[in-house]
Amino acid sequence: MKFFQQLLIAPAALGLLAPIAATANEVNLDVDSADLTAGQFSDYETSTKVTGKVTFNVGALNTDDDITVGTQMGDKLTSGYVSTFNVNTSFTGEDRLYARIKTGNMASTPWENTAYGTHLQAANNAGNALQVDKLWYEFPVGDEFKVWFGPRIEGYYMLASSPSIYKPVLKSHALGGNGAVYGSSTSPGFGAAWIQQTDSPSDFRWAVSSNYHVRSGDNSTNGILTDETNGKWLSKVEYGSPRMQVSLAYARHHCGNATGADGGCYDWAGYTSSDAADQLTGNAAGIGLRAYWKPEETGLMPSVQFGFDRMNIDDAGNAGDAEETTLWMTGLTWKDAFQDGNRLAAAIASPTTASERQGGADDGSKSGLTWEIYYDYQINDGVTLTPSIYGATDRMDGNANGHDDYIGALVQTTFKF
What we know:
The protein has 417 residues and is mainly beta. It has helices at residues 2-15, 17-21, and strands at 40-41, 44-45, 47-63, 68-69, 72-73, 78-90, 96-104, 131-141, 145-153, 187-195, 205-214, 230-240, 244-255, 284-293, 303-313, 322-335, 343-357, 369-380, 383-393, 406-416.
């Protein structure tokens, strides 16, 4: 009962922010359109634009027996925040140097923990210290090609378009299912995309993307494109328009340093069995199918997102380690729900799970599901209030504690400027 009493307190407390937030538009910082002249590149003035976002989180997580998720016990009301500052600089009017500065204080909460799928899309564990979270440069080549490279980037940023239109609360529901195909870590990388030119941006078109990033690329002991590196190639072929799309992706993990200081060959977000993915000793390859559709007009019919992954591991090591994994995800979004500018959304997924294991052992979590429901209430152009509930069944099965289910509730207040 204590858990649900606390959940009643959170929305009420956040509701007190509404009158304050409603006056936010009276304070005009004009950061969004601040052009700072910084020199010359050819005959174009260098332009820099800065935008920002701050998210407050208040909520709690209830597990079967108050087990520890990270260092934060369930059934306790907790608060946290994330601040993000985006710096975009162009030297030609068509290129972009992008830097994302980020900080937060969620290290001691379930919302920054990836083990059981409670990690939020808006989470950060920087310990209140400002950090360069992303840093890359992108530019066009002719009318149909685009190139990216940088020291802090992830593979899914180097695609012609995103594989998903669903906006998640839990990170495991991102990208149409955040797993072995699209899931990645911030690291050095490069990539390119070909995008078919059409008469109108709304026309159907083809696009092909391919990129490489390496988890230990900033380590001179391992280097880039070496046998000691934990690298990943990601390629995507897509056909569609902004309203609907079907795509097929191929991912190849090179796990040469799977047992090294980098902690394994990528943390496949949402892996549910007791045999963690970083115990894998061989390379891996997988395919990811994604599809989405939006109705022409908002109403009772929602936008639909679907995702499916299958990954095969070349050389599973110990008995019980995964030889094959699968994932699926479905998300629904009702735009302008109940009021223009608001959003109602829900998702359900079976996170990355071992469909086959070394020695034929069963994965006790293969029937597990995660889900979320949330509502975006737009107070004004700069402030959004998002109450949500989320949970899982059979998510923790197989660990030493033997606990299966959890349910959480959260209220997020997002300020954009």
